[in-house]
């Protein structure tokens, strides 16, 4: 077994999208080979309704898949195919934009006005970029959760892990998408296929992700469950950790435990031509998509 080294640790950056939604972007509109097949990851978390209630009005997508995972509040969605629905707390939606779709996403806070969710964009290979659009809406109760003897909890949203398989399937990037909580002071190792690109995103608590190289940073002594433990390089709220190659990731949870997403996927390794919500292989394909948007032929008839 080989431990995946930590290539980079960085904080998600505040930005604004849609009609004025305040969010934090962990990555996106960067070097697309860095986390291939993943293109963008947003954390939309807010307890000020004016900062998210205008939502994401009608906009196009082509050539990608998006996964939306809601933790608090709801997201009402609709599209140019006539689909409508509402994602509640714990629910997931995977949308294959394929040849093109127009849709809107309108978040609403919970009873306390809080909204929290994530959106991940995954690229489609050239052979599937013009496939028919489709949705998979999954209720939180359908997502398997595994609780280990030490209190570690893993929700399997996509892919297979610890003998359970997530309800979302048929995704081109063949991803694994896990929501993991490790209790205070627990050290835990998670296996990841060697050939996948992988990252973690911490959104509650803090912890130290072990590195195959010599440890760096300040060594901290903390009391956890009545015992002194040494924790180095604490990664906390809204932190992205990008991993190198290997087949496992190890984390030491801090004094409040740690909750993070662990996401991996098989790289596509194709050219990327990218403008906003449209991702193709060549500039010519991108220009054609923009022309179709202007002349009203962007949405393709169902076969």
Automatic annotation (TrEMBL):
**Keyword Metal-binding on this protein?**
yes
The record, for Gene3D superfamilies, names:
Jelly Rolls
Entry keyword Phosphoprotein: no
Q: Which UniProt keywords apply?
A: Iron, Metal-binding
User: What are the required cofactors?
Assistant: Fe cation
Residues annotated to bind Fe cation: 59, 61, 103, 105
Where do the Pirin N-terminal domain residues begin and end? 22-121
MF terms in GO: metal ion binding
The segment(s) forming the Pirin C-terminal domain are 177-298
Relay the cofactor remark from the entry: Binds 1 Fe cation per subunit.
One Pfam family from the UniProt entry?
Pirin_C
Q: Which PANTHER family match?
A: PIRIN, PIRIN-RELATED
Q: Record's family?
A: Belongs to the pirin family.
State the protein's name: Pirin-related protein
List the taxonomic lineage: Bacteria, Pseudomonadati, Pseudomonadota, Alphaproteobacteria, Rhodobacterales
